[in-house]
Known about the structure:
The chain is of the alpha+beta class. The protein is built from 5 helices and 6 strands. Helix content is 36%, strand content 35%.
Amino acid sequence: MNRLLLLLPLVLLQCQPAARFSATAEEKAIRDVLARQQAAWNAGSLEGFMEGYWKSDSLKFVGAQITTGWDATLARYKRSYPDLATMGQLTFEFYSFQFLAPDVCLVTGRYTLARANDNPTGLFTLVVRKIEGRWLVTYDHTS
């Protein structure tokens, strides 16, 4: 009988309903992170833009070269976009949000920078992960 009483809490835990995953709600949360990044960029704040990235030495940014780590990625952005004129105004266009797991999403889209003399544009693929309750970009391939 005592053994049964010891097992009862484990059985009850197994019977708890799993938290429901809503792709619609999670996509909105990811879009909100990316919208905050866009707003920070357009306000000239690279540090604010970087708030959407995983602050880890394991962050990967793939462009013309591979950059590893949050600090190195911020330094790369500062070298590439030293002032408001080179930053321009950023817009995102999203093509897809593909959930690979409830806490991992593959986002594809296009970025465009509106600047005085040009309008560079390109494609991106992001791996966005839910870490400690927050969606963060952990891998960014931008071309």
